[in-house]
Structure formats: structure tokens, C-alpha cells
Design a protein that fits this description.
The protein is mainly α and about 625 residues long. It is built from 36 helices and five strands. Strands 3-2-1-4-5 form a five-stranded antiparallel sheet. Strand 1 and strand 2 form a beta hairpin. Helix 23 packs parallel to helix 25 and helix 32 runs parallel beside helix 34. It is extended, with a radius of gyration of 36 Å. The chain starts with a helix and ends in a 10-residue tail after the last helix. About 5% of the residues have low confidence.
Length: about 625
């Protein structure tokens, strides 16, 4: 249905409502407007289902906010309507009766329910979904006063009666209850309500009410105030230091926290006091990733931004650094510095100036400056810039070990909070940092708790390639079990046989997860020594290790087949070998071992064989495309 056609119907409804409000039914203006409206309704090829959201009508994700749409949406919303449907084939009588109903006083319709009024009038082709106030309040029955108060809160009603106002004031005598109740409406409605009520309710009660809103909604409201300003800003600033600290701690993972911080704390002394409280609490009680994020936020909050002053300082500094180059080169460089810094984002352009300068001078001081700036760009998610810089500059040469760790931690934090596209760029940056950063990456992998991040770091190290092997081998010995396991995983991905001398001691590692990972590594290697180690793992005391060894055996191809057949033919005494037999049978099917077919068929005929083993045999035969009991898979 075309947008212009919908607007035409809405305008026709508005005109007809205006006519009915001013003239009797038989007046030509009324009859003519309804006749025109009915001609439009007659052309409907489908139901016209309109949703109302504040002053907007929506039809199939198309939003209408033109004058007529806004007027009609507001009229419906004030009468407690959330959505309305004009069904195809709606009759003229239905339209006339609907128009007479919709001009009734809003509070009358809200109180009785417009859906019930339509039913009483026998209107079947016009249906409404009313605003469910009971759901908002989570009450089986909602008192009339609360219905009217909620209509006032959401903007469906312009004023309150004295009795209703008293109920509202009583509600705000319990700010916690008010926060729970009013916290169920959307943020824009909540903000509009606060602006309307701030002259009638003491500000300390309103600030207490905001404090008791659900934390996510409270932060979104504060963020909107930070962007738009307004009277509510003064209410927010009435929070105590303790309240502000609690609010910011519960929300400091949210985007936009810095803008909210500045709006709440325009006073510099108070800002420093709150920063000190936040720092103490977060560094004592939160995880390392949260502490890293907080330190980045703290740094940005305490920095003074003065581009003009910085620009002059940078120009002067670069001029001094360029003293070692020729006059012509220096003149060109200064000109480029001046042009790049003038009227632009200083930090963003400064790195390119530094890179140009470094290409002239190879100055260590410039190298350190570039490396330091890179971390700032990682923190602000300017990943494309960092990638381009690293393609021409080796940052790790100019960083202390601690600063290098900070850079890597910032990258890992960005991985945690970013989407898929940005995560790929973080991986690219880590790969460009390359073998110089392997030791740091291994250290961070050892301390990382989140499985997804560990997998990401393992994949990154594997992509760096063979240059990682010596450092990985060093960490195989005398490390916690999870570090040893992770090192094995990476070595398996690289697939280098030079690690063989390090593997035999791991056959007897105390943690079965290390021995299980060892089996996976041995499955990827191809030399005879690794195969002999794998055969030893088939006798391991842990069932999971033995299962992993059987899977690894299937990766060894032809040399593993005799051993798979031997395991598949094992006697399953007291069910001790069930899982190993099943794993071996499945492997025979995957490898399409035709000489196993007679044995697999015999398994199906033996009554004492467990059903779960028979099922595996059937799957293996299907993989081999062999007939089973007269059927072909």
C-alpha cells in the first residue's frame, strides 16, 4: 500500500472528525467528507493496521509523522489506543459510529475502554488494541486515579484533577515505589513527564525517584539529558556523591558514560572527588578487564583538551626534532605539519606527521611517541589508522615491556566490547605486531579467563606462524595446566615436528585435559615417533583421553586403520569399552574402510551387542553406502 494513499485516508478521517464535531449528521459538509472517505476505504486491498507510538503512526515499518498523522495519533493515544485496524470492507455505518466515539472525552474512553465501547456499538470491522495500564502497573485491577495518572505521565492527558494530583504526590512520597512503577514506561515518556512535573514535586524527591529507576533505564534517561539538556539536568545534579558513584559504577561499561559524567559533574572539584571514589572501588572489586576500561575512561575524563595550544606545542616539538635533516626537507616537513594540524583533529593527523618525521630522522624519541599514540587510537577504536601505521612501523621496538602489555590489553578489551567486523581488525593489528609481541600474547593468554578471548588469542598466535614455536616450547614446561594446554593447541595449529622432543613428558601430565590436547596434537603430526606416542595414549587411564586418541588415530590415515579395527573388535565386558568401540566404528565409517564392512554387518546380527554400538555400526555402513537389512542408504 502506497504511503500517499495511507496519508489520504488519515487526512480524510481528520476532516470527518472535524466536521462531526462542528455540524449535525445530516449537514452536507459531514455527508460529503464521509462519502469521500468511504471511496478511499473501498479501494483498500488489505487491512489497514496502524500502530501508535507517541505522535507517530506506523504501517508495516513505515512511519508517518506529517501533520495529519501526528494529529490522528495524538487523538488515539489520548484515548488509550495503542493500535487500530480498519479491516478491508469496513462499512459506512461503522465509520460513522467510530467517528462519533473518537470525539468523546479522552478520560471517558480510557476509563471504560474504547474496545468495549466499539463492541457495544456492534462495530466489527474496526478493532483497537488499548494501552494495557494493568500491565504497566502489574496489578489485576487498576484504580481509575492510577489510569489517569499514567495517561498524564505518558502524555495522553494534559492535566490532572486535584484528587489525581494528590494520588501522584502520595506516590512520590515513596520514591522507590515511584521508580518501580514509572520505570516501566519508555525513556522519552519518562523524560517528558519529569519536565512537566518538576514545578510541582520537590526536586530532592524527583532525584530520589530517578535513582530508583531500573539501572539500564536510568542510564538511558541520563544519557538523553546529557545530549539534550533541559530542566531535568538540575535534578540529576542533586544526587549525593555516594549516589553518583553507585550510578556510574553500575553503568561504566555503557557507551556514553563520559558525556553523562560531565553533565552530572560540571564542578571540577566534585568531579575529582567522584573520580577518586570510583577509582578506589573499581580497582579493588572489579575484574582486570573492567579496571583497564575504567583507567581509559579516567584518563579521558581528566585530560584537558585545548587543540590550539597543543597544535603550537607539537609544531615546535616537531621543528626541533627535524633539526637533523636538510633545510629543504625541514621546510617541507614543517609545511606539512602546519597543514595537517590546522583546523583538524590534532591527535588523528599527528600520527601521520610523526610517521613522516620518523621516515626522515629514525629518531628513537619519535618512535616512542608513535608507539604511545597508537594505544590512544586503539582505545578510541580507530583500528584502520592503527593498521596502516603498523604496516610501516614496528611499534614493539619502541615500547617498554609494561607499555607493550598495556597496548595488548587495550586490544583484548576492544575485542571483548566490539562487533564481528571490529574484532577482525583487532586480530589484524595483533598479527601485524607479529613475533615481537609473542611473549606478551602468551602472558596474556595465560591470565585470560574468558574462553572466547582465549580462542581468539590462540588463533592469533597460530596465524603468526613458525616464529612462535621456540617461545611456545619454552612455556610447555613448569606452567599451570591451562597454559600448557593452550601452548599445545597453538603448536598443533602450526603443525611443526620440531616440538617432538617436548612431548613425551606430557604423556604423564597430571591433568587429563593436557593429555587430551596432546592426543589432538599427535593426530596432526606425521612422523613415526609421534605415532608411537599416540598408541601409548590409547591406554591412558582417562576415558576422554582415550576417545580423543581414537579420533586422532583416524587422522593418521592408513597407518591408523589396523588399530581402529582392533579397538572396534574389542569385547565390551561390563560396558567398560563401549565409548571407545563406538568412536572406533564411527572413524571406520568416516575413513570409508571397506574391509570393515563384513565385521560391521556381523555386529548387527549379534543379539548381545548393545543397541548404541549397533546404531554406530549402521551409521558407519551408511557412510560406506552399504545395504542394511535389505535397504540401501
Amino acid at each position: 500500500m502506497e504511503s500517499s494513499y495511507i496519508i489520504k485516508i488519515i487526512n480524510g478521517l481528520n476532516l470527518s472528525i472535524g466536521a462531526i464535531e462542528m455540524y449535525p449528521d445530516f449537514h452536507p459538509i459531514v455527508t460529503n467528507s464521509i462519502n469521500r472517505l468511504m471511496k478511499d476505504f473501498m479501494k483498500l486491498e488489505e487491512d489497514l493496521n496502524l500502530k501508535i507510538s507517541r505522535n507517530t503512526l506506523t504501517f508495516k515499518d513505515k512511519k508517518f509523522q506529517e501533520g495529519g498523522a501526528r494529529e490522528f495519533a495524538e487523538r488515539l493515544r489520548k484515548r488509550g489506543v495503542q493500535a487500530i485496524t480498519f479491516e478491508r470492507g469496513v462499512k459506512e455505518e461503522d465509520i460513522k459510529r467510530f467517528l462519533k466515539i473518537i470525539i468523546l472525552q479522552p478520560h471517558e474512553l480510557r476509563k471504560k475502554g474504547i474496545d468495549k465501547v466499539l463492541d457495544e456499538e456492534g462495530i466489527s470491522k474496526i478493532k483497537v488494541l488499548k494501552i494495557d495500564y494493568a500491565k504497566i502497573f502489574e496489578l489485576p485491577v487498576v484504580p481509575d486515579a492510577l489510569i489517569e495518572i499514567m495517561a498524564f505521565i505518558t502524555g495522553e492527558k494534559d492535566i490532572l484533577s486535584i484528587d489525581e494530583f494528590e494520588v501522584l504526590r502520595e506516590l512520590f512520597n515513596n520514591p522507590k515505589k515511584a521508580g518501580e512503577v514509572i520505570g516501566r514506561i519508555d525513556v522519552p515518556s519518562c523524560l517528558t513527564f519529569l519536565e512537566r512535573i518538576e514545578n510541582f514535586v520537590p526536586h530532592e524527591k524527583l532525584s530520589s525517584f530517578i535513582y530508583h529507576l531500573p539501572s539500564g533505564k536510568r542510564f538511558r534517561l541520563m544519557k538523553e539529558v546529557a545530549e539534550k539538556g533541559g530542566k531535568v539536568k538540575e535534578i540529576l545534579q542533586r544526587f549525593s556523591d555516594e549516589e553518583i558513584t553507585s550510578i556510574l559504577i553500575s553503568s561504566f561499561e555503557e557507551e556514553g558514560i563520559e558525556e553523562v559524567f560531565r553533565v552530572l559533574l560540571p564542578d571540577e572539584k566534585r568531579r575529582r572527588r567522584i573520580i577518586s571514589l570510583l577509582h578506589e572501588r573499581i580497582t579493588k572489586a572489579y575484574s582486570s578487564s573492567s579496571v583497564i576500561r575504567w583507567k581509559e575512561i579516567k584518563k579521558r575524563l581528566t585530560e584537558r583538551e585545548d587543540v590550539e595550544v597543543l597544535s603550537k606545542e607539537r609544531e615546535k616539538e616537531l621543528g626541533l626534532l627535524a633539526e637533523g635533516v636538510s633545510e629543504v626537507e625541514e621546510r617541507e616537513l614543517k609545511k606539512e605539519v602546519s597543514e595537517d594540524l590546522k583546523g583538524k583533529d590534532l591527535q588523528y593527523d599527528y600520527i601521520w606527521v610523526l610517521l613522516d618525521l620518523f621516515s626522515f630522522t629514525k629518531d628513537v624519541k619519535v618512535g616512542k611517541e608513535i608507539a604511545e599514540v597508537l594505544k590512544d587510537f586503539v582505545t578510541s577504536s580507530e583500528f584502520d589508522l592503527v593498521i596502516k601505521a603498523l604496516e610501516i612501523f614496528r611499534a614493539t621496538e619502541y615500547l617498554t615491556k609494561e607499555r607493550e602489555k598495556d597496548l595488548f590489553r587495550s586490544l583484548i578489551l576492544q575485542f571483548k566490547i566490539s562487533d564481528k567486523e571490529k574484532r577482525e581488525k583487532v586480530g589484524k593489528i595483533l598479527s601485524l605486531l607479529g613475533e615481537d609481541g609473542v611473549s606478551t600474547l602468551i602472558d596474556l593468554l595465560a591470565e585470560e579467563r574468558e574462553r572466547e578471548v582465549r580462542r581468539f588469542l590462540i588463533n592469533t598466535l597460530a596465524q603468526i606462524g613458525e616464529s612462535t614455536i621456540p617461545k611456545l616450547r619454552e612455556r610447555l614446561k613448569d606452567s599451570p595446566w591451562y597454559v600448557t594446554r593452550n601452548m599445545l593447541t597453538i603448536l598443533a595449529s602450526v603443525g611443526d615436528e620440531s616440538i617432538m622432543p617436548d612431548l613425551p613428558p606430557l604423556l604423564h601430565h597430571e591433568d587429563f585435559r593436557v593429555r587430551r590436547e596432546l592426543a589432538r596434537v599427535l593426530g596432526r603430526l606425521k612422523d613415526k615417533d609421534s605415532f608411537q606416542l599416540l598408541l601409548k595414549l590409547l591406554k591412558d587411564k582417562d576415558i576422554e583421553v582415550r576417545q580423543s586418541s581414537i579420533i586422532a588415530l583416524s587422522q593418521r590415515g592408513e597407518e591408523g586403520i589396523p588399530h581402529l579395527l582392533r579397538i572396534a573388535r574389542k569385547r565390551d565386558i561390563f560396558g567398560r569399552n563401549t565409548e571407545e568401540i563406538k568412536e572406533a566404528i564411527k572413524a571406520l565409517g568416516r575413513l570409508k574402510v571397506e574391509r570393515a564392512v563384513p565385521f560391521l554387518k556381523r555386529l548387527l546380527k549379534k543379539r548381545w551387542i548393545k543397541e548404541e554400538i549397533k546404531e554406530c555400526a549402521k551409521v558407519a555402513l551408511r557412510d560406506l553406502e552399504v545395504e542394511i537389512e535389505g535397504k540401501t542408504s
